[in-house]
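Note to self: keep these together.
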Amino acid sequence: MSHDSTPSRRAPKPRKRRRGLKITLGVLLVLLLAAGGGAYWMYQDLDGNIKGVDIDKALGEDRPEKLPTAGQNLLVLGSDSRAGAENQELGGGGAIGGARSDTAMVVHIPEGRTKAVAVSIPRDTLVTRPECAKSDGSTMASAERVMFNSVYSQVGPACVVKTVEKMSGVRIDHYMEINFAGFKDLVDAIGGVTVDVEEPIHDKASGLELTAGTHKLDGTESLSYVRTRHGIGDGSDLGRIGLQQQFLFSLLTEIKSQDLLGSPTTAFKIANSATKSLTTDEGLASLTSLTEFARSMNGVDPSSMETIMLPVAYDKRDPNRVVAAQPQAGDLWKAIRSGAAIPESAKKSPATGG
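Structure:
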């Protein structure tokens, strides 16, 4: 599938499923491991699957202050690396070299950890990329008006964290990334995911063809489903976010419906598929650390999670791109920084992608 986002601008129309009980793949994995936490010793052999990134070392001291009321904040990325043979076979990947952060969410877990909020950042959002250190020791200068998802491919995950911290003022405590090839294997490991398609999807770029109604998708179909943009709305990233949120909640529901504790073999198969493509910050880069973190979230009820799209507006210079809408975006980040309730006005986006 092409990553060249050049949709025609249409009059926005409201989408039916902007909010709800949704979850990201990274948090999904945490909850999965929490479910099997009592038997996590069975999975010690999976430690080698998890890759770690030293985010703290890369970012240094120039970071937002960690406030006592800030709770826990995770940056969760779905990376769309298509350089390898496996990913090139998924969704037209042969046309793309390198990797991009195809999905990004800031997951905020307030003090007490009884509820959570996930803020989706559209990949087409124009942002100011701060000065960042590259893996070879050189420095990438700051730049304005760059697409958010390009930061990952240009500089790497630490710079994505730094970009999010600069644009939000929110201190990111942990980082999780899952490669989409692992996403496919995870869906196949649980036997597919059932989705409710509200409107027919005809995406010539990926070959995805779905009629309105209920469908059970395998791994390859699921990957096309969460990647599709040309077959829905105005062809931008904004319409796709709604599909991703709906799908990820369905994925969580499917996993929760399986008897993981009663079937160690199934649990191991799912955990193995997930951890093979998992990258985290060094603080979570072991099964033990990840499980301990998951246990600390046992009080979080997935059904109370709310997913919000970062309020954005069409860019005045390029209507095919979006920018953070003010004052809505500023009010949203302020509420997350302070642990306050998010105002309803901060959940409304002028650009809807309809």
